[in-house]
């Protein structure tokens, strides 16, 4: 498992933090797994989420082991060391998920901002690694993830996005998304690559 991202609560406050945790860590096996255990996504790394307390972290991070297999530079899951700058943003659901009365207004705003290039827009699909917000649906129609424990509609917890600035590549330049149950974070996660 390689460390991909570590976020402190002070840098990304929100309702997604479990009680007593102030550090979020996402690790993954950097190899593509075509038949991973559930709830992992086919054709993706196997992901592990850790919620920790900053006081229990070692003073110096340990050096992760090199991956067993290296993917091509433009395809794969080997992160490069970098720092992320937290920025508070608001994004909105995919327009078809909005009430009909708002859909026209959002489409007009997208048109006015000139952000509808190549089928994407920066208003309803804020790119980048992020806590919360709304998942992008640039490859498929929107779908609902259901909690395997209680059947609740899961919410986007975290996105690891391909990004030239950070050097992170997710598969074929996509996003790895982590969904969690709003009823109880202990119900586990659903992962997908989009």
Q: Give the spatial strand order of the biggest sheet.
A: 4-5-6-7
> Beta fraction of the residues?
15-25%
The count of strands amounts to 7
Q: Residue share in helices? A: under 10%
Instruction: Give the termini separation.
Output: 21 Å
Shape: globular
Helix count?
1
- Biggest sheet, open or closed, and with what strands and sense? 4 strands, antiparallel
The residue ranges in which pLDDT falls below 50 over 5 or more consecutive positions are none
Estimate the mean pLDDT confidence: 80
State the order of secondary-structure elements, H for helix, E for strand: EEEHEEEE
What is the number of domains? 1
* Class by SSE composition: mainly beta
Radius of gyration: 17 Å
Which key features would you list for this structure?
194 residues, mainly beta, 4-stranded antiparallel sheet, 3-stranded antiparallel sheet, 1 helix, globular
Structural features, described:
Helix content is 7%, strand content 20%. It is mainly beta. The protein has one domain (2-56, 71-91, 126-193). The strands form 2 sheets. Strands 4-5-6-7 form a 4-stranded antiparallel sheet, with no helix packed on it. A 3-stranded antiparallel sheet has the order 1-2-3, with no helix packed on it. A hairpin with an 8-residue loop joins β6 and β7. The longest helix is centred in the middle third of the chain and has 14 residues, at 100-113. It is globular.
Strands, helices and their partners?
Blueprint: E1 2-8, E2 23-28, E3 47-52, H1 100-113, E4 130-131, E5 155-161, E6 175-180, E7 189-193
Antiparallel strand pairs: 1-2, 2-3, 4-5, 5-6, 6-7
